[in-house]
Amino acid sequence: MIDTHATPLSAQFSEAKRKLLENTLAKISLRPPDSWVISRRPADREIPLAVAQEQVWQRAQKLRRRPALYNECITIHRNGPLDIPTLERSLAEVLRRHEIWRTCFGVKEGKPVQIIQPALQSLGLPVVDLRGLPKEKREMEASRLAFEHSRAPFDMQQGPLVRFLLLQLEDQEFRLHLTMHQSVVDGVSVYRVFPKELTTLYEAFSVNKPSPLSDLPIQYADYSCWQRGWLRGETLGQQLAYWQKQLGGDLPVLNWPNDRPRPATESYRGEILPFAWSARLSEVLQELGQREGVTLFSILLAGFTALLHQYTGQDDIIVGTLSPSGRKRSEVQGLIGYFLNPVALRVRPSGSLRFRDLLLQARTVVSEALSNDDVPLEWLAEELRVKSDATRHPFFQLAISLGPEVVELPAGWGQTFMDVGGGGARWDLYLEFSSRTSGMIGRAQFNPDLFERTTVEGALGDLEALLEAASANPLLRLSELTVRKASQTCTTSAGAGRP
């Protein structure tokens, strides 16, 4: 029997002991439940794919004869002396540390599983020396080789799902091209984790020092096992309830002005158009975000949907983004792997709405979506009975994203992400931004079966002009943010929304 009138336990201690007890209890109350902790998986357990990773795998199986839709490419630049055996050793160590880059996929009892290959003792790095060519031909040949390297398909069952190519253009000018299948990589992996680890290892190995990097406490496979147990029950139900409210019922179909009617059969072909905005505009956008209390991504989303409203006259618009849903946990910040999930963002612009109000709306939409971003769109489509082609993302065909900040590398090292494309396009138009000290850079990935390159260039110019005007005066109404409407002569097609 409990005496409810007894003296509280904390009152029986001295002031110092009482504070210590309160601090201890507070820490205990903040400790996450066991279901939140990512721990090492049992050694004998089959390794499932992470939820979003499985969606990529499923779509890739259906599109085997299509362009290299899920090939991701980056380039590491070295200006200075380079010891190739040391570089090979550094790459091999990265692959040893990160199991996901030694992973391929099999099927057990009808379900895909991860199969982790043993670490290699040595890495056979393909090297092409272009110094034998005339200088004026080296760049053309380097581009051709990088293009071929980026477009070669992957065998997801045999692997590997990461490949390297080293080009030497001058005695002290090298380019290391990486092509990776999307199922094993994300922006944090290639913007931050890989470049930092590679250069750190190379700098150590080049002076005969051991690796300064500590072993990883968990691996991507541990995360995927944990996620399968976490994303169920109440957690899944709460997120589904949010999306039922946000995307249930009749959905808008964006009447984006295409240059040509949509083909009867999707080609999934893609081209890349790099672009750059001035440092001044980037500063203005950052200042706008600080004044209004919104993120840079919310500003870009507001500007993009305002532009789409101007092009189409529609006031209910869904665009997509790639949410780093799996990167919320501290345990995975140092891991390479696929932690992204496509998310639908539904914004309601109108001509009478002030840009500041659209900014606040975008902030709310993004915040709520990122709080419920673990459910794949394919699961939502099934739950909401959205009819769509199983090989296409439902809900939207236009998407926008902002990459993570790039990591600072040692002198003589650099990285680029938007100079080589795999030849495929997941959406009709995808705008990927990256904020740098020199300004905003980005790439537009578009389907040439729908758009002329000049149309995309015009739309980017319109977006830049709209954001400049809105930043100067966010109290302007959307109807007052005039743009050139470079695409207004195009054929209107209802193909950019839900198929």
Describe the protein's architecture and organization.
With 499 residues, the protein is α+β, with helices and mostly antiparallel strands. The chain folds into two domains: 159 residues, Chloramphenicol Acetyltransferase, CATH 3.30.559.10; 254 residues, Chloramphenicol Acetyltransferase (2-Layer Sandwich). Helices cover 36% and strands 19% of the residues. The strands form five sheets. The protein has a five-stranded mixed beta sheet, sandwiched between helices. Helix 3 crosses helix 5. The longest helix is centred in the last third of the chain and has 20 residues. The radius of gyration is 25 Å and the shape is globular. The N terminus and C terminus are likely disordered.
Quick overview of this protein structure:
By secondary structure, the protein is of the alpha+beta class. The protein contains twelve helices and 16 strands. Helix 8 (279-292) crosses helix 12.
**Could you give the order of strands across the largest sheet?**
5-6-7-2-13
Estimated structural class: alpha+beta
Terminal Cα span: 65 Å
CATH superfamily of the largest domain: Nonribosomal peptide synthetase, condensation domain
State mean pLDDT (0 to 100 scale).
Answer: 87
> Number of helical segments?
12
CATH class of the largest domain: Alpha Beta
Give the domain tally. Answer: 2
Proportion of strand residues: 15-25%
CATH-derived architecture of the largest domain: 2-Layer Sandwich
CATH topology of the largest domain: Chloramphenicol Acetyltransferase
